[in-house]
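Structure tokens please, single chain.
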Amino acid sequence: MPVLRSGSPTHRPARSRAAVAGILLTTVSLLVGLPGTAGATAARRAPEPTHPGQDWAGSQIAKHEGGTAGVLPPPSLTASVEGVDVSSHNGNVAWSTLWTAGVKFAYVKATESTSYTNPSFAQQYNGSYNSGMIRGAYHFATPDTSSGAAQANYFVAHGGGWSKDGKTLPGALDMEYNPYGATCYGLSAAGLVNWMKDWFATYKARTGRDAVLYTSTNWWKQCTGNSAAFGGTNPLWVPRYGSSVGELPGGWGFHTIWQYTSTGPTVGDHNRFNGAYDRLQALANG
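Here you go.
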């Protein structure tokens, strides 16, 4: 009777199965270890926002950075244009009051993640336009809930589009402290930069415009490593509640919009466009 030895053909299928299993395990391990892969997987595991009505441009800035929110800066020594930004927490806005007070532009929160639309958006977006203002929409980013492309597409589909009518500003992406957990949304600096690149590229493909970026210098340094990746293409909208705009994030030599207070008259958040009115019109027209 033949003797079966280790290494005979009878044993090869078992070894092949083990080898295949080992290859599969190694492949999975490599994929998990790839830069961005783990972050992308984690980004799809975070729950959708539970209180998006409480998240607006700057809602987390005063909480984390403080500042003299009630102190208005001195009158601008250079040409500037007064503006505001609003979200659902403002409800129906008295646009005629703001217009009479000299407010000439507005940004309105449209969306958050891929699950929330501002219930006051129509009154705020159309109302500011009807009062005579140049207005635009912004998206509150949650990079841990879905991809940049998914959120950009959702934003465009729910009020974030753009048209060359002279009265519509390019959309804005609000990147600030996470209201729901880890400051940087559980992503590395490279992961966050790539997420934003995905969002901006998708928005431009859909609208033809480079979007505005809202972010604070402190958050930007902490969460992106002070990346200079966007300074050459995306206009900067920076919050700082004090007497001057202060230090800017990496990559920008100047700011386009300064959110200088969260406690201004009528709506709270007030902004200054860094330039004359014709430059604001130029930003709207692209």
